[in-house]
Write a structure and sequence with these properties.
alpha+beta, 3 domains, 6 strands
Length: 283
């Protein structure tokens, strides 16, 4: 099919947004709001006249005299061409931009040094903002657990993994600004985790000083002590890979973690053991 004459007078809309616009227009009394609009095939760049849109299907002219009906979700990578002066371009027929609601939050967080993005929900962004602006005394374990889970989700996206570490560390550093000895165990665990994944090995080790010596914290449970010992062992392995020091300490805290957990190995402890053994064999 030849390219539309005067196609610069058409606006490109995602298929899902086009469907929403048609539904809004029909709700406002326009029975054939799709007239004059075209589907654009992203592979062949054909512009196919839309004949109908009903429920979740779009019917279009595949060739002269031949039509085809396809579910909207199948066309998710296609776009539609809508004339600039079309009724669908009236504001009352345009679906709200989901970015509009969260844009102020995104901008506020970015100014505050938090690399927020549009893949995050309004609820998640609001939680991050509230935690960023709260002192440790204004939080409770339940709120902090919600934050850890929210920030952790970003690690599932390779492009946002480093952002996850930056967000987590910024908030945890704020909460952990008081004496290490007085911090709750969950703060120490996550502070050491984010410091380590931010490549700040010495700071990660400092967050786990509570396991022994003058900084020993008696208010931490054996299970929490086991988790912290694994984090400390991992930080020593980071140190070893960086400058060849810390292998002996890594081994000591791997054993510490195992003992503190009643002789059981957590998945994290097992992974750290495997890393230790791999590095020991390499050298």
């Amino acid at each position: 099919m030849e390219k539309l004459m005067g196609s610069e007078d058409f606006e490109e809309i995602e298929v899902s947004d086009f469907k929403k616009s048609v539904q809004l227009a029909i709700a406002n009394g326009y029975e054939t709001a799709w007239l004059g609009c075209y589907l654009c095939n992203p592979v062949t760049f054909e512009e196919l006249k839309i004949l109908n849109i009903e429920e979740n299907k779009i019917t279009f002219e595949q060739s002269v005299g031949n039509s085809r009906s396809v579910p909207v979700n199948v066309l998710s990578k296609w776009t539609t061409l809508v004339p600039s002066d079309h009724i669908l371009n009236m504001s009352q027929h345009k679906p709200p931009n989901p970015h509009d609601e969260i844009r102020p939050l995104i901008e506020h967080l970015r100014v505050s040094g938090v690399p927020a993005n549009y893949e995050q929900s309004h609820e998640d962004l609001l939680l991050i903002k509230n935690c960023l602006e709260s002192d440790l005394e204004q939080t409770d374990p339940e709120l902090r657990l919600r934050l850890y889970s929210t920030v952790k989700k970003l690690e599932n996206f390779p492009s946002y993994q480093q952002d996850s570490f930056k967000i987590g560390r910024k908030i945890l550093e704020n909460w952990g600004s008081s004496s290490i000895q007085n911090l709750p165990a969950d703060i120490l665990i996550h502070l050491s985790y984010y410091r380590r994944w931010s490549k700040d090995i010495e700071a990660a080790l400092q967050a786990t000083d509570c396991l022994e010596g003058q900084h020993y914290n008696r208010n931490i449970s054996d299970r929490e002590r086991s988790i912290l010992a694994t984090e400390r062992a991992a930080a020593y392995l980071d140190l070893y890979e960086k400058n060849g020091r810390g292998m002996g300490e890594a081994l000591r805290f791997l054993k510490y973690s195992h003992a503190a957990n009643s002789g059981n190995s957590s998945p994290e402890n097992v992974m750290c053991w495997k890393r230790h053994d791999r590095l020991a064999k390499r050298d």
